[in-house]
Design goal:
328 residues, alpha/beta, Nucleotidyltransferase, domain 5, 3 domains, five-stranded mixed β-sheet, 12 helices
């Protein structure tokens, strides 16, 4: 059976498919709903010689999980690095599927990491914790702002500690401000309750997973940072060295070079925002280290300022991560 190259333009409700031969001749095109019946229909037209390219999007992983065992290979395409629209004035679902298939045939697609289900589940856990923590901080800020608007002086240092909670319980604010305060406190209590089992699970993983344990031993890293890095990186062999890892985290500057002139701008902020957040937060603690790295970080903070130094230290941490990551 001749090898065929299939491009799929995937959407929430449907997906458009185009199959071509190794010579670029179009074999067939069809649209199916993004459902079990639609995927079953696709698999009836595919075989073990089929290679599939599909752009990365929210429904991509669940879609790929259903078809990866039934075809030769599935390439999850980075649409930003694979210029599918270059040179074309029109953009439709059918044209996107055709261009994906042709780019796959020419071996000009840029693929991304396809994490196994265990890593994806770990990412869900860490990102859920991050969303809950941000929601908790937002609720606390809203309560502080509400008290400030109503001219209420807080008599304790920690408003959300034991004494502060007792004081808030007895506080009476007139009108809708009081109703808002009560509602915000109830939501905050629920968010805190949801955080407890999440943090317990993260600490258990940090204690049992060999890679998370090794990262947890690094200065400035704890269970949350270690498990989050474990989830976001997945397999360290994807990155040959620290600069490649820093690029994945979006911590490298934009560079434009032409005619002997070079311009460096702000960091790209491409890649995993959760990994970038962990590295920036961990960089704060590196200034307390008493080794050469810590001394360099403190000197850099004095010369360049703490904000620029944090980014540079986070970028340097990527080299240490590559070296400290257990292999085998």
């Amino acid at each position: 059976m001749e090898r065929e190259y299939i491009g799929i333009d995937l959407h929430k409700a449907f997906f458009q498919v185009c199959a071509i031969t190794s010579t670029g001749e179009r074999q067939w095109e069809q649209r199916w709903p993004t459902s079990d019946a639609g995927i079953a229909g696709l698999l009836t037209r595919c075989g073990r010689q089929s290679r599939i390219a599909v752009e990365a999007s929210s429904p991509t992983w669940a879609f790929v999980d259903r078809i990866v065992e039934h075809v030769d290979a599935v390439h999850v395409v980075d649409s930003r690095k694979t210029r599918l629209k270059a040179g074309y004035a029109a953009k439709t679902d059918r044209l996107d599927a055709r261009r994906l298939a042709d780019a796959l045939r020419r071996d000009s697609v840029v693929g991304i990491y396809y994490p196994p289900p265990a890593i994806r589940d770990l990412r869900e856990l860490c990102r859920y914790r991050c969303h809950l923590a941000r929601l908790q901080a937002s609720l606390k800020q809203r309560i502080h702002a509400l008290l400030l608007r109503h001219g209420v002086a807080v008599p304790v240092k920690r408003l959300f500690g034991t004494r502060g909670s007792v004081w808030l319980e007895a506080l009476r604010v007139p009108g809708w401000g009081g109703a808002s305060l009560t509602g915000l406190r109830h939501v905050l209590r629920d968010v805190r309750a949801q955080l407890v089992p999440v943090l317990t699970a993260i600490r258990a993983i940090a204690a049992s997973d060999a890679i998370a344990c090794a990262l947890d031993a690094r200065p400035g890293f704890g269970p949350v940072f270690s498990v989050t890095l474990r989830a976001e990186i997945g397999v360290i062999t994807r990155f040959p060295d620290g600069p490649h890892l820093a690029s994945y985290a979006g911590l490298v500057p934009r560079v434009e070079r032409s005619g002997g002139r070079q311009w460096s701008g702000r960091i790209t902020k491409a890649g995993s925002p959760w990994m970038r957040w962990v590295l920036i937060e961990a960089a704060i603690h590196q200034l307390r280290r008493q080794d050469d790295f810590g001394r360099w970080a403190r000197q850099l903070a004095v010369r360049k300022g703490i904000l620029k130094a944090r980014v540079a230290v986070a970028r340097a941490l990527c080299d240490e991560l590559v070296d400290a990551w257990p292999r085998g």
